[in-house]
Amino acid sequence: MNIRKELRSMHTSSRKIWKRSSQRWRRRKNGWMSSAAVRNDIQKPMHLLSSFIRSFRKKRLVFY
């Protein structure tokens, strides 16, 4: 019984942590997108795109 309870608590806590981190990442991505859209009109879009892809790939490695 104790072991099962421990497992359940671990699972819920990990899910909570993941949800929090995913929310943070989503918020950051949205903020980046809007600022990029503004910056896009001013300067080189290709550079921004490449930097975004690079950061996204890094995040991908972290998440999966």
Give a brief outline of the structure:
It contains 2 helices and no strands. With 64 residues, the chain is mainly alpha-helical. It is elongated and about 55 Å long.
Structure explained in plain terms:
- With about 60 residues, the protein is an all-alpha fold.
- It has one domain.
- The chain contains two helices and no strands.
- It is elongated, with a radius of gyration of 18 Å.
- The model has no long low-confidence stretch (mean pLDDT about 65).
Set down the secondary structure blueprint.
Layout: H1 2-42, H2 45-63
Shape: elongated
Radius of gyration: 18 Å
Q: Flag low-confidence runs.
A: none
The count of domains is 1
The structure class reads mainly alpha
Task: Give the count of helical stretches.
Answer: 2
Q: Distance N terminus to C terminus? A: 32 Å
Order of helices and strands: HH
> Main beta sheet, described?
none
Rounded mean pLDDT is 64
Strand % is under 5%
Q: Percent of residues in helical segments? A: over 70%
Number of DSSP-assigned strands:
0
Region (Disordered): 1-22
Biased composition (Basic residues): 13-22
